Structure formats: C-alpha cells, structure tokens
Input
Amino acid sequence: MNRMLPSALPFLLMLTSLGFPTGAKSASASRDSSQGETAKAQELLPFGDLFTAEEMSRDFASHQFTPLGESKLSFEILVPKGWESHLSEVDPGQLAHDTQTPVPMAEFAPSGADDVGFQVLYMRVPGQAALDVLLGEYVKKAGGTLLARQRLESKGRTFEDALMRTNDDTLGPLLNRVSTLRRGEIVYFFTGWGVEEKYEKYKRAFGAVLASLNPTGI
Output
C-alpha cells in the first residue's frame, strides 16, 4: 500500500526543483498570493469537524495501535467503518534506520481496494528538527509535485500538511495527503492517498482521520 518513500534531502532543494519563484514581491501581491494559497489549501486539505456527530458515529470507529510492540509508538485514530486495517510488516533494516527514513506502522484501506488508503508511519527525530523540513524531504524523495500546503493547529498539536501528485506505474496519477506531527522524539507521518479521480470522494474522510490522530505513547 505504501507508494511514497521518504528520505533526507534539504527542503530548499525541494522548493527549487519544483520551480517555486524566488524573486521579491510587493507586500500587497504577497498578501494576495498568501490568501489564495490558504483558500486553495483549505479546499484541497479539509481538516477538523467535517461530519456531523451522527455521521461520525455511523461511519467511523476509534482504533488503538501499539506498533512493533513498542509503547512509545502507540496511537489512536478514527478508521472508516468497513475499512480493513493491519500493522505494517517491517524488516530489521528499516528499524535500524528509523532516524533517517520514516518506518510504516499501520495501513488502512476499503475492503478489496488497492487504489485508495491511508497509512501511519514514524520517524525517530531527537532534537527540534522542523516538521516543515521533514515534510519537504518526504515530498522530494517521492518525486512529488506539491499542490498545496498548510500549517494546522488543533488541540495543542501542530501539523504540517501538504498535498502532492505523483505517478504510479500501475495506477497512474495519485494524490497523496502527507502530514507530520511530533510527540517528543517521535514524528508521526500520516499519508492519505488515492488515484486522482477518487481523491475528491475521500478528502473529507482523510481530513477527519488526520484530525483524530492522537499519539498515546509514554
């Protein structure tokens, strides 16, 4: 299921390679651009209370996971009812490099589907490495085209959140919502992905699931 493989390359290189402008702008132009980018991000990356209480009770269920048997990695998250979930298979080599590359923990998808799903990964990042830099490195390694990004504040938590487009040899164009959240030395990565024509259908579900992601490890 995991079709995005992050690594560690400088965030500024990612901006340059994706063709972001570096020239100066007037203050008013910068404000207009910023407002337009914010509106675009909110449209493509909805977040928070996106369903009624009745819909949440009917269509989602809360699940708790302790990946790899390690209590520090424990988390709870909402999962759409009818979706299958399982802990990711991880080899020792991945664990040995968990300070360099995110390691998959759990995967979720509608029963029988192979073209949409979401995944939770972790990376052990001591110190105060910026979440936006880690997110940029992920996008760069995936060879993605950045479509929108935003910073989210919710219940005392800070998320860096982005949408990128990539291409899969089998499925074709994919849209992938990638988000980062820190708890101590553990940085959680959320990726909600699907073939491009299905993203609109699932983007609100991805937003609700992301808002529910709650690290519980000690």
Summary: The radius of gyration is 17 Å. The helical segments are 11-17, 27-44, 53-59, 92-96, 131-141, 196-212. Strands lie at 60-65, 75-80, 83-87, 103-110, 116-124, 145-154, 157-168, 172-183, 186-195, 214-215.
